[in-house]
Design a protein that fits this description.
It is built from 6 helices and 6 strands. With about 190 residues, it is an alpha/beta fold.
Length: about 190
């Protein structure tokens, strides 16, 4: 009875449940689309990538960068935020060109995640397009997500459909410029 009285008067200790946190302070894996269609979005995607790289550097977080187009480059890994200015210049000046393939960068990201230091990573997937991801891959991806506890935020630049990224992402954010309020979600990592 005493509890009900305190509860009604707002004096009982209460907790607000928030559910599962999707992005945290773990390692950051950036999959950055460098396909030919990204030429028009290159400035915003690189600005976004450099901002994430700066966050990892300042917070001394592990950071992996996987540029991709029709193929994916090997991940470039920076442990504990040891990112130098030449590394940032490299990210800003590289452009692969070509088609778009989502499976290859996700496979490269899964290789990185399987390293113990990248458990519970935040994967940020930046693209402007759509590519097919088959159901067998999505099943294996879901299983790995459950095992390793990572999350995926896809930043969809432009006006494309979320269909291509929706199957492997926890959240999809659309943005066309840095002025979009929605883009701030990705910086809350």
């Amino acid at each position: 009875m005493d509890f009900l009285r305190r509860y009604a008067e707002g004096q009982a200790l209460q907790y607000d449940t928030k559910g599962k946190e999707h992005l945290g302070k773990g390692p950051i894996i950036l999959c950055l689309d460098q396909s030919g269609s990204m030429k028009g979005q290159d400035t915003i995607s690189k600005g976004f990538a450099l901002a994430l790289m700066s966050i990892a550097r300042k917070q001394r977080r592990d950071f992996a960068w996987i540029p991709f187009s029709s193929h994916a480059s090997d991940a470039i890994i920076y442990e504990r935020g040891k990112i130098e200015v030449p590394d940032m210049i490299q990210l800003a000046t590289v452009f692969l060109d070509g088609g778009t393939n989502f499976v290859q960068p996700l496979n490269k990201a899964s290789e990185v995640i399987k390293q113990s230091r990248f458990n519970q990573a935040d994967i940020i997937f930046v693209t402007d397009g759509e590519a097919h991801v088959n159901n067998d891959f999505l099943k294996a991806w879901s299983s790995l997500k459950e095992q390793k506890g990572f999350s995926v935020l896809s930043l969809l630049l432009g006006k494309e459909s979320i269909h291509g990224v929706g199957g492997f992402s926890d959240r999809v954010v659309r943005a066309s410029s840095f002025e979009d309020q929605s883009i701030q979600q990705a910086f809350d990592i």
